[in-house]
Design brief:
Helix 4 packs across helix 5. It is globular, with a radius of gyration of 20 Å. It is an alpha+beta fold.
Length: 169
């Protein structure tokens, strides 16, 4: 009654659960939407001999029709230059190495109408991103639109991240 909070009592709980946030929310009694759909993004480190071609960060102008920024250049703390990420559907919410899949996660987004709505609106971007997933040279060419002298640069795979994309049905 005095306004004090007692053990076990609270007004709000905040959970930072990223890729599992929709499942946690639903288990906690919240709505089933928005739904999380996992997208992976691969980064590459460019050949060290070319790292001086880019002095800082280079980012594309965001396209408000598409939720992903696109390939960009980022200098790491160790001085290496990375390009990336691409953005493509991940076959698992925790599939960081790209070698596994989760039937549950795949079924989850395939059964969700919001995913198909998103996919149908983004066919050209999906095809462009698929090309960057299948071919390192296409990936490099995408990045070289901003720095043409890097069109033939060698790259080494670096980190791969999974983005928790919230989608509304």
């Amino acid at each position: 009654e005095s306004g004090e909070v007692h053990p076990g009592q609270f007004d709000f709980a905040i959970a930072c659960s990223g890729l599992q946030s929709d499942r946690l929310a639903q288990r906690s009694g919240d709505e089933a939407t928005p739904k999380i759909v996992p997208f992976f993004g691969q980064y590459y480190v460019i050949d060290e001999a070319f790292k001086s071609h880019v002095k800082g960060l280079i980012y594309p102008v965001p396209d408000p029709r598409f939720p992903f920024l696109g390939v960009h250049f980022t200098k790491r703390i160790d001085g290496q230059m990375t390009i990336g990420p691409n953005a493509f559907i991940s076959l698992g919410r925790e599939n960081y190495d790209g070698k596994r899949f989760s039937a549950r996660d795949i079924a989850d987004f395939l059964a969700y109408p919001g995913f198909w709505k998103f996919a149908s609106r983004n066919v050209p971007a999906t095809l462009r991103e698929l090309k960057t997933v299948l071919s390192e040279s296409v990936f490099v060419r995408e990045a070289a639109r901003y720095v043409p002298s890097l069109s033939e640069v060698g790259v080494t795979p670096a980190v791969r991240g999974i983005r928790a994309q919230a989608m509304q049905g």
